[in-house]
């Protein structure tokens, strides 16, 4: 059984915590790992109509430019994943959805983070007021679902959450439309 020998907090940020853990593995090896403890997030594949979704072109300083992404955001730690998804959809896109289905959940970086992202399908959308955070620089685009899938294959979409969300949504899209 894996045993945690000790845990040290290296940094407590506004969103996540960086810790170091010394552990003893089942094979007898003792090692130290740096881990990002994250409160979790939700992401949304928002269907505007029978063949278009919303994609965001969002500035991401860590990668030095803009990425194509589905709407997503970090949980406040106490909220349910669906509530987080509903909040983020309105904040980032200026839409609300009447119909919600959970597509799945992913762990995007298990080698160094415990972040879990819940992915939802949203449809029956109506306009609402967008509420971007002060540090969010993004453009809202309506894109044909099939074109979004092609953007993965051409390399235009590189964000792992978006790739996973669109792949999870593929069967739902085919069965609904």
Structure description:
There is one protein chain. The protein is α+β, with helices and mostly antiparallel strands and 177 residues long. The chain has two domains: 3-37, no CATH class; 41-176, Nucleoside Triphosphate Pyrophosphohydrolase (Alpha-Beta Complex). The protein is 23% helix and 45% strand. It contains three helices and ten strands, in the order βββββββαβββαα. It has helices at residues 81-93, 145-154, 160-176; strands at residues 3-12, 17-24, 30-37, 41-46, 52-60, 65-69, 72-74, 95-106, 117-127, 138-144. It has a four-stranded mixed β-sheet with strand order 7-4-9-8, sandwiched between helices. β1 (3-12) and β2 (17-24) form a beta hairpin. α2 packs antiparallel against α3. The longest helix is centred in the last third of the chain and has 17 residues, at 160-176. The protein is elongated and about 55 Å long. The mean pLDDT is 96.
Ordered list of secondary-structure elements with their pairings:
Elements: E1 3-12, E2 17-24, E3 30-37, E4 41-46, E5 52-60, E6 65-69, E7 72-74, H1 81-93, E8 95-106, E9 117-127, E10 138-144, H2 145-154, H3 160-176
Parallel strand pairs: 4-9
Antiparallel strand pairs: 1-2, 2-3, 4-7, 5-6, 5-10, 8-9
User: Which architecture of the largest domain would the CATH scheme give at its second level?
Assistant: Alpha-Beta Complex
Please, how many helices? 3
What is the number of domains?
2
Average predicted confidence as pLDDT: 96
Shape: elongated
Radius of gyration in whole Å, from Cα?
18 Å
Look at the helices and sheets and give the structural class: alpha+beta
Along the chain, the helix and strand elements come as EEEEEEEHEEEHH
Q: In terms of per-residue confidence, which ranges show pLDDT below 50 for 5 or more consecutive residues?
A: none
Q: What fold name stands as the CATH topology of the largest domain?
A: Nucleoside Triphosphate Pyrophosphohydrolase
Main pleated-sheet profile = 4 strands, mixed
CATH H-tier superfamily of the largest domain: Nucleoside Triphosphate Pyrophosphohydrolase
Task: Just give the CATH class of the largest domain.
Answer: Alpha Beta
- Range of helix content: 10-25%
Strand order of the largest sheet: 7-4-9-8
What fraction of the residues are assigned to beta strands by DSSP?
35-45%
